[in-house]
Design a protein that fits this description.
Shape: globular
Strand content: 15-25%
Structural class: alpha/beta
Strand order of the largest sheet: 9-8-7-6-5-4-3-10
Radius of gyration: 17 Å
Distance between the termini: 15 Å
Order of helices and strands: EEEHEHEHEHEHEHEHEH
Largest sheet: 8 strands, parallel
Length: about 260
């Protein structure tokens, strides 16, 4: 499996890297969170633009300016994400509007990667449009994260492997899947899918997470099963909440990761 660079951070080697989401209603709060994140034991930041007030995620110019403002206060690599309502976010728009906005932001945004949801609600996809969008992002020197989130449950192992594989073959630099467990067996199935992907299909790093309280352990041990990024909140003391159920604060997650891996990776 090859490694991927996001700025100065290498993915696919060593311990999983911690990413902290920035979820602010306006630019001032966004900059405050980015500055606060400089003190956290994390290697990556994610700008969850769908949390902006008054559907601010629709404004291409404002979004681009916000990414530049983030970069003025932090050197940590930035992932730009507009999470749609279909996959647990707040942005409501048509697929055409969504893909068009991301294509425009590929040119204007100051970020190292852009998160793209390639699947429709029925897990179908428009291959030509997705490949074109990925190439537009990559031509601007940014990495593509294709992501798929299931907040209703955990699909079968073969379904999760298939989705990761399809995202990789569609051109993702980093495929991502996050699912909701209802039992410990669901968590085991997510880790099994990660193992199969790692051992049989992965050409590049990927992300595989189980959400909620049951899935917390995957945020710690996922790297041992091939997952390259794990997500953590900034913590209550910095007034930075979680972007998905089950996220620990960054300091706690970092301590667990260091204790778990030691010299393993």
């Amino acid at each position: 499996m090859e490694t991927i660079k996001l700025g100065g951070v290498t993915l696919g080697a060593g311990k999983p890297k911690i990413c902290v989401p920035l979820m602010a209603f306006d630019k001032d709060e966004l900059v405050r969170q980015a500055r606060a994140a400089e003190t956290l034991p994390c290697q990556l930041l994610e700008f969850r633009a769908d949390h902006l007030e008054k559907e601010g995620w629709r404004d291409r110019q404002a979004l681009a300016e916000m990414t530049h403002a983030i970069k003025e206060v932090t050197q940590k690599p930035l992932i730009l994400t507009i999470r749609t309502a279909d996959e647990g976010g707040l942005a409501r728009m048509t697929r055409t509007e969504y893909y068009s906005l991301l294509r425009d932001l590929a040119e204007d945004a100051a970020c190292e990667a852009i998160d793209i949801e390639p699947f429709d609600t029925d897990a179908d996809f428009d291959e030509e449009r997705i490949r074109f969008l990925a190439s537009c992002v990559q031509e601007e020197g940014k990495k593509v994260i294709f992501s798929n989130h299931d907040f209703s449950g955990t699909p079968d192992v073969d379904v999760m492997v298939r989705r990761l594989y399809i995202m990789q073959e569609l051109g993702a630099d980093i495929p991502k899947i996050a699912v909701m467990p209802h039992s410990e067996d669901d968590v085991i199935n997510l880790l099994t899918a990660a193992c199969v992907m790692r051992d049989e299909y992965a050409k590049r790093p990927f992300i595989a997470l189980s959400m909620g309280e049951l899935g917390k352990e995957t945020r710690i041990c996922g790297g041992e099963f091939g997952s390259c990024i794990t997500f953590a909140s900034g913590g209550a003391s910095l007034q930075m909440g979680e972007s998905a159920p089950g996220q620990m604060d960054a300091a706690t997650l970092d301590a667990y990761i260091c204790a778990y891996y030691g010299d393993k990776l």
